[in-house]
Specification:
Distance between the termini: 67 Å
Order of helices and strands: HHHH
Structural class: mainly alpha
Shape: flat
Number of helices: 4
Radius of gyration: 22 Å
Largest sheet: none
Helix content: 55-70%
Number of strands: 0
Strand content: under 5%
Length: 112
């Protein structure tokens, strides 16, 4: 973390690491198959949380005026990945690229 990170955040990260260490110790008492399921669930949750937090931080950094390459360096990814993330979060529908949705017809129905 940079020197600009507040001590409160550093403590929060340390607390999470300590909790994970305790969880690891407690998992040793669980049957192997159950342990694998729990670890898989934990990994999915942490991956989702990390992805959301990282993308929000990238979007905030860009809003603060940071250039793509500087954001990429701080996030540990390429500037192209940053560009793609920003495109997803700044597009009007935040959906896949393509033609705009069709507008419903206004008028009498077509004869069949």
């Amino acid at each position: 973390m940079s020197d600009s990170a507040t001590p409160g955040w550093r403590q929060s990260v340390q607390d999470i690491c300590t909790s994970i260490d305790r969880l690891h110790d407690r998992l040793q008492e669980v049957a192997a198959e159950d342990r694998l399921r729990i670890l898989h669930q934990l990994q999915d949750s942490l991956t989702d949380l990390h992805t959301q937090a990282r993308e929000q931080a990238i979007t905030a950094a860009r809003a603060d005026g940071l250039p793509l390459r500087r954001i990429a360096t701080a996030a540990g990814c390429s500037h192209e990945q940053v560009r793609h993330i920003l495109q997803r979060h700044t597009s009007p529908a935040a959906g896949p690229p393509g033609p705009p949705p069709r507008q419903p017809r206004t008028g009498p129905p077509r004869p069949q």
